[in-house]
């Protein structure tokens, strides 16, 4: 069995340079919940160019120890994006998405290491008080991962593109969850 390292670096996604890689990731059948299955390369370039220009939405690539892209992370201000009108935001709320690419050689613990690194990265900002997620209600695997790092389900919400499970994670819950491992 391969051992998982939890050391990742982050860099801003460069829409044109990274579009081909991200396109492969988001159109893979295992990325169905990303909802870009039928996207063309140009669609991915356009979507991430729009994110790069948006002051309320950001995309980063998580880099492995070899410096190569290992996963995709997005974070956003839910007062302005994704959850507008669907819940009562609090000061310090940050919305988050992450995607680990499909692989023929899965590494045990990789996805948990990724979500842990993503949440830790967001909590590096002292202004972040709570992370908000809204995965598809059918995505049981991500619900379990969210719970493992301290997210608490709040309620189901109806977004235009899906029925989602609104969940929150405070810094304290995250620190307790990580310390318990």
Account of the 3D structure:
Helices cover 31% and strands 25% of the residues. The chain contains 5 helices and 7 strands; from the N terminus they run βααβββαβαββα. The chain has helices at 15-27, 41-52, 110-123, 140-148, 171-179; strands at residues 9-12, 57-63, 69-76, 93-99, 130-133, 152-158, 163-170. α1 crosses α2 (41-52). It is α+β, with helices and mostly antiparallel strands. It is globular, with a radius of gyration of 16 Å. The two termini are 19 Å apart. It has a 7-stranded mixed beta sheet with strand order 1-2-3-4-5-7-6, with helices on both faces.
What is this structure, in a nutshell?
The protein has helices at 15-27, 41-52, 110-123, 140-148, 171-179, and strands spanning 9-12, 57-63, 69-76, 93-99, 130-133, 152-158, 163-170. It is of the alpha+beta class and 181 residues long. A hairpin with a 5-residue loop joins strand 2 and strand 3 (69-76).
Secondary structure elements and pairings:
Elements: E1 9-12, H1 15-27, H2 41-52, E2 57-63, E3 69-76, E4 93-99, H3 110-123, E5 130-133, H4 140-148, E6 152-158, E7 163-170, H5 171-179
Parallel strand pairs: 4-5
Antiparallel strand pairs: 1-2, 2-3, 3-4, 5-7, 6-7
Helix pairs in contact: 1-2
């Amino acid at each position: 069995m391969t051992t998982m390292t939890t050391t990742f670096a982050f860099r801003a996604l460069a829409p044109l340079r990274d579009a081909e890689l991200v396109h492969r990731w988001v159109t893979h059948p295992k990325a169905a919940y990303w909802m870009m299955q039928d996207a063309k390369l140009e669609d991915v370039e356009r979507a991430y160019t729009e994110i790069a220009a948006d002051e309320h939405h950001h995309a980063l690539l998580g880099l492995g120890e070899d410096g190569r892209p290992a996963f995709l992370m997005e974070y956003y201000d839910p007062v302005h994006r994704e959850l507008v009108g669907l819940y009562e935001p609090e000061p310090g709320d940050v919305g988050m998405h992450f995607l680990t690419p499909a692989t023929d050689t899965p590494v045990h613990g990789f996805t948990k290491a990724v979500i842990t690194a993503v949440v830790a990265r967001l909590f590096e900002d002292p202004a972040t008080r709570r992370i908000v997620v809204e995965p598809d209600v059918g995505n049981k695997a991500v619900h379990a991962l969210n719970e493992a790092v301290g997210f608490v389900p709040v309620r189901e919400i109806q977004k235009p593109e899906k029925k989602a499970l609104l969940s929150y994670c405070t810094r304290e819950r995250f620190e307790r969850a990580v310390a318990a491992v």
